[in-house]
């Protein structure tokens, strides 16, 4: 199986799920047709763009193409979850509180996933422009901080009451951002220091 | 994921990753930190590259290796180090390598 074929094979199932959820949403709530069309159209556009880029083998490494496929699948999962939550809301499953909680959990897991991937994806790219050791150190710190904040965010939306979760999740997010900014500032104002592993 | 576990199961490869935390290093610089021959070191680096834990790029005649760990892989590296995964298998291999090095030294 060529890379292009394996890319399509990985994106096809999630694209099918997005299309199916969008179609069901459309049938149940035809007055919001534009929303469902945008959801399904976005997935189709992602697939088209990835398929086009995957064919240009000469300009990309395998690692870059794998990253592109993963990003497309991740985008599809986000669309499917959004359409799924909307479907649950239309069907009245679990009530509004459950949907609000799931949105919070989803946002937390998204933040954790972003934090996890941050040092791997951004490190080698940014390190070509800045001091590689320092960049790596800052990005490791940022990755760990955002991942932990994301897990706390998701846990808070699972275990706390909705009003508490609203405040605590924002606190977790804001703390992570402040910590990362402080770490970046520390790296910036200490040019003579060798970056030590965090 | 199997490739990641395989790569992290070896103490030498974990040591390479620890060294790369200080910043990108040339293949020769990495090899100097170990008693292994350069081809052996190159094989270790190839396993790390295959697992997508390091990135290699050419700079003139040198190959520069740079760390490329996600947070979970970083955590796995920490666990493997704490629990000493693969440490028992290391001693005989290290001795073999030393013997190989000394034989090479005798020949030259």
3D architecture notes:
The complex is a heterodimer of chains A (about 200) and B (about 110). With about 200 residues, chain A is mainly α. In chain A, about 85% of the residues lie in helices and about 0% in strands. Chain A has six helices and no strands. In chain A, helix 1 (about 5-30) packs antiparallel against helix 2 (about 35-55), helix 2 runs antiparallel to helix 3 and helix 4 packs antiparallel against helix 5. Chain A starts with a helix and ends in a 9-residue tail after the last helix. Residues about 195-198 of chain A have low confidence and may be disordered. With about 110 residues, chain B is α+β, with helices and mostly antiparallel strands. Helix content of chain B is about 65%, strand content about 15%. A three-stranded antiparallel sheet of chain B has the order 1-3-2. In chain B, helix 1 (about 1-10) runs antiparallel to helix 4. The longest helix of chain B has 21 residues, at about 85-105. Chain B is globular. The interface of A and B includes residues 119, 131, 143 and 194 of A.
Tell me the overall shape of chain A. Answer: flat
> So what's the overall shape of chain B?
globular
Roughly what is the average pLDDT of chain B, rounded to an integer?
78
What is the percent of helical residues of chain B?
A: 55-70%
Structural Rg of chain A: 20 Å
Order of SSEs of chain B, N→C? Answer: HHEHHEEHH
The counted number of beta strands of chain A is 0
Query: Biggest interface, which chains?
Result: A-B, 22 and 15 residues
C-alpha termini separation of chain B: 42 Å
Largest sheet of chain A: none
Low-pLDDT residue spans of chain A: 194-198
Q: What's the mean pLDDT score of chain A? A: 83
**Could you give the distance between the termini of chain A?**
41 Å
């Amino acid at each position: 199986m060529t890379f292009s074929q394996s890319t399509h094979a990985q994106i096809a199932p999630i694209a099918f799920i997005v299309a199916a959820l969008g179609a069901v949403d459309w049938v149940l709530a035809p007055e919001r047709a534009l929303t469902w069309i945008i959801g399904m159209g976005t997935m189709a556009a992602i697939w088209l763009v990835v398929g086009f880029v995957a064919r240009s083998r000469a300009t990309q490494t395998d690692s870059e193409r794998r990253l592109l496929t993963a990003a497309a699948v991740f985008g599809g999962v986000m669309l499917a979850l959004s359409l799924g939550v909307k479907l649950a809301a239309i069907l009245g499953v679990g009530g509004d509180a459950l949907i609000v909680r799931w949105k919070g959990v989803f946002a937390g897991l998204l933040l954790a996933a972003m934090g996890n991937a941050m040092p791997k994806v951004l490190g080698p790219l940014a390190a070509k422009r800045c001091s590689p050791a320092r960049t790596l150190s800052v990005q490791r710190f940022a990755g760990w901080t955002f991942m932990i904040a994301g897990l706390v965010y998701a846990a808070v939306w699972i275990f706390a009451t909705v009003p508490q979760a609203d405040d605590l999740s924002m606190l977790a997010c804001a703390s992570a951002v402040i910590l990362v900014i402080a770490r970046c500032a520390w790296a910036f104002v200490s040019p003579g220091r060798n970056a030590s592993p965090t | 994921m199997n490739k990641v576990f395989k790569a992290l199961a070896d103490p030498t490869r974990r040591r390479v990753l620890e060294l790369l935390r200080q910043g990108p290093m040339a293949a020769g610089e990495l090899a100097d930190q170990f008693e292994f021959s350069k081809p052996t070191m190159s094989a270790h680096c190839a396993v790390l590259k295959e697992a997508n834990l390091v990135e290699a790029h050419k700079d003139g005649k040198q190959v520069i290796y740079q760390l490329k760990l996600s947070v979970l892989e970083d955590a796995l590296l920490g666990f493997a180090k704490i629990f000493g995964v693969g440490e028992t298998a290391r001693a005989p291999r290290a001795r073999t390598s030393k013997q190989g090095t000394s034989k090479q030294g005798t020949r030259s």
